[in-house]
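Why show two proteins at once? Because comparison is the fastest way to build intuition. When a single record is shown, students tend to memorize it. When two are placed side by side, the eye starts asking what differs. So, the first record is below.
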Amino acid sequence: EAERCLAQATKTCPVDAEARQHFAEALWQRGKPTDAIAQLEEAVKLDGENGRHFIRLAEMQLAQGQVTPARRSIDQAIDLDPKSPEAWAVRGQVVQRQNQPHQAIADFNRALSIDPGNQAALLAISELYLTHGQPQRALAHLQSLVDTYPDGGEPTRALYLLGLANT
């Protein structure tokens, strides 16, 4: 029903970038990634000053294996808002997929410098440090990550990695 209503909204007002973003999310949830990406591409054409559109577009593109377009989208988001921790964290994911682990670590650290409690960045950087044989650095980030959760609410993945880093 949401998909139908949002499709109608974009037909009624084709220049409404927010309607297109919501439509893209509905399409994404319904398993229509190509259509979702197309709607977000339209949203960024209509509202090229909204970094949120570029961040979400990059996330979708990356999820579909479109690494080069995702890099262009996330770089645009960072150009618009260089203090966005979400943008830097997504850029870290993109460059990680481009097999640039040192740049990925730098980007995740940039996200953490803006938002020290960014759980996704803490987890990602911990995994990178473990993968690259730096368990002490991973341990420091994992302890920070675990501290962001209430006792007993820590994700299993974080606890598993904490165990690996302590060995």
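Second record. Ask yourself what differs from the first in the token line.
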Amino acid sequence: MGIVIKKELDPTFETVFLLFNSHIPDWKGELIQSLQTFGINGELFLQKHFGIVETYLKTFQKHKQSHPKESFFFENIQSEQTLLIIFLAAEHRTLLNHGEPMDLLKLRGFLASALLETFESLDVPDYTDMPQLPDEKSIIEFLKQLDIPNEEKWFILELLMQPDYWISQLLEIVTLNIPAYEKAVAAVKTPLKKLLSRFSPRENTVLLKLFFTAPHDTTIYPSLSAPLLEAGFYTRGYQGLLIEELTKQKGSSDVEKETLLRQLKSLSDKSKLDILCALKTSSKYNLELSEALNLSPSTMSHHMNVLLTCGLVTVEKMDGRVYYCLEKEAVSTLLSQLNSLLL
């Protein structure tokens, strides 16, 4: 099985994220703050690289069509995890390779499986492996284990109660705004063409490692609406068109310090340090770590995403499971850099 690299945007993915970004009053400020937590000068980065993104979003907003249910999906959403679930809902038929709608319980199970975000497999889970949520009580119990803001749990509750209705409403919203997306693409045609021509997924990333272990063909798309995101969904992945700009100067003193700061920041959290200590003796899969450290699967996934991004952990597939492994070379490099800087 292989990986197909697309040099074109995915209209549904782009439209969902453009709609979400249109509901963030100060998206620049939030992005600057997020970059700065990783030791990056966010304001300078936006000034240098985000002109195309700003034009793209402003054009979309100018032509965007409102829908009476739009606020349900795109207001008061704080976590990227929940936003990705919105995208999965919009693409559920394509992702599941079904020509017909799924029944209510399977829809719930599919969305709930994605919310757990355990990365146990790149295959769509069998129905018997999905969370079984036949009624409101089971849904509420499921929500208790999710590590997301409480206000988003109300959204997830409503979505899981009536997934068929809300998915149909979401498809209407996306379809209504595809023309606005197309006008946004036309507004940045020249610089976008240049970015797309250079697009190539970064080598040796977690996303590629996961996809290379998949038992099926996978497709990776570039994204401009989520320019710094890297995410995978079963048979497809997305990589932001500006991610490479964060690592272009790799090897310079400043970038080495930024990488070091991100790694040290992750080590300052007890749970993340406990994870690394647990991986010292042997590789482990998500649920194995969750049980050993008494953390929920969703919390574990959050910690692992940070450690994967920092390069302190890698992944490999064994016996049909995705295992996390301590990146010992990266740890050695971290210690060496500290020694060089401070001693």
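One difference worth noting in the second protein: Confidence is low (pLDDT under 50) at residues 249-253.
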